[in-house]
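Reviewers of the previous submission asked for a worked example of the structure-prediction workflow described in the proposal, so we include one complete record here. The input consisted solely of the amino acid sequence. No template or homolog information was supplied to the procedure at any stage.
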Amino acid sequence: MKCLFRCAAFTLGVMLFSGLALAQTCPAGYPLSTPSSDFADAGAGTVRHLPTGLIWKRCAEGQDWNGSTCTGTAAIYTWQQAFQRADAVNAGAAGTWNAGQTDWRMPNVNELKSIVESGCYAPAINTVQFPATPASGFWSGSPVAGLSGGAWGVFFTYGVDYWDFRGLAFHVRLVRAGQHFYHFDAAAAVAAVAVEFYYSGSNHYFVSADRSEVAMVDSGAVGQWVRTGQEFAVDGSSSENAPATVCRFYCHTCTPGTHFYTLNQEECAWLKTLLDWRFEGGAFYARQPAGGGCVSGAPLHRLNNKSLSGAPNHRYTTCANIRDVMVAHGWAYEGTAMCVHTTSADCTVDTSAGGRSYPAAP
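From that input alone, the workflow returned the following structure tokens.
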């Protein structure tokens, strides 16, 4: 319940800022995180965010698009009403507009954060692409794990995420299409290759089997992550030799942030109860190990950095020699986490940690 004081302060801030016409401030020297070059007009009052492929309504719900800007007053909704509003928009109900599309939905919290403009505040958004945006709270569709009455949102005065109680009313911006850096569907990882990335700033590793996400990480849109040269093939469906969905989590309170993957359903269920860890969905498919090994496929070893970087981080590798070197550098070996379809990795290649053969401990 550590968020109660922060959330109370946030709610007070919403009350103070709501309804005020604030002049956006973009301090000199701060680079823009969502420049207009990252967007393309998608017609009828919608815009495509090129780094993610997401298509957004340019106006908050309750506002209208007049061809050049958003008019009217942005409405506020409880969390349940926000989903009802999306349904009404898709149904073409009176008082709504859907730009001729019927797949509008609530964004998850990370999708909503993807349009935060960190170089500006009040509001913290690109006001050319999203004119007349209230400098206030917007609901996401993400529930708070372990708290049935809570949900996540983004406060667009300063662009910070928060959670609050679902019975409170905040603004809503709908989205469709695309796929964001923290939004996954294991079904999208059909016959995919899981690619490993490394960030030297935190000595952290990250894995993705989603092709659109891999392309976005390669583009540098989410920071200076680089490929290590390691990868492995994942199963194409949940019916192929009965593989299961790998749960993917993100620790949003860790500094630096970190991801975690598990095929263990008990471990997955337990992490869903922890407020610090956000369940992001299925990362890819894999098979359960048996007796510490794999009946078929390649063993995927899991190593733990013992939080030596200030936050937990795990590395997943099919290479026994990389596993052994990581242990020699202070990482803890946690065993075979899962069995993946095949490995195509060259176990002599590992470009992490500045191009050395293998990274030193943090």
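The helical segments are 4-17, 79-90, 109-113, 211-219, 265-271, 320-328. We consider this example representative of the routine output the project will generate in years two and three.
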